Amino acid sequence: MWQLRLLRPVVCQRRLEFVRQLLQRPGQKVVAACRNPDNADGLRDLQQQHSGNLSTVALDVTDEDSITAAAESVKKSHGHVNLLLNCAGVLHIPGELSPETSLSRVTTDNLLRTFKINAFGPILVSKAFWPLLAKAPATEDNPTKLFARRKQHIATLLLHPGTVDTDLSQPFQKNVKPEKLFSRERAIKQLLDIIDSATSKDKAKFIAWDGQEIPW
């Protein structure tokens, strides 16, 4: 049985690694969402390597109409989603947005921008794709759809990847111990291992890269 897995938006090395590792699994179809798929060189390369198993859809997490249109596109092409990975986020943008490491750096515009991407976006994406998750049939080897609400057999996980060696974390790696600075390959494998072991009882859990539950 083909399983559809959706990621959004694939604009950084870590998100692209999710796509790469999922495509390495037999019988997987992946839909990768990003703001401008035509300019996503990494995705185009993967599409050439995995013809027919990877498709893309335009999705901007700051634009609710874009989110709704992406969900409709996936509905028409695949009908349902087995796994929804909400992995878009922003910490800093050189020359545009600095991390709020002190109160002096906090501004209204920056707060609105980060909340729109990091908080509002995932909620709106979940809202749009929830019906497609609810339609996904449970299979013997994958009984769990990753997002949960009420009595449906769908799990919800919040995952902490640790510190991953990417451009995003580069300015903040100074005090990270070498053994705690993970390659993209290792970090994504660790997260996928956690996802694979999830059951319908895993609802609203916050889990670290090593499988330990984080109180919140």
UniProtKB/TrEMBL annotation:
InterPro entries: Fungal_SecMetab_SDRs (IPR051468), NAD(P)-bd_dom_sf (IPR036291), SDR_fam (IPR002347). One of its GO terms (molecular function) is oxidoreductase activity. It comes from the Eukaryota. Pfam families: adh_short_C2. GO terms for cellular component: cytoplasm. Transmembrane segments: none annotated. This is Uncharacterized protein. The lineage of its organism: Eukaryota, Viridiplantae, Chlorophyta, core chlorophytes, Trebouxiophyceae.
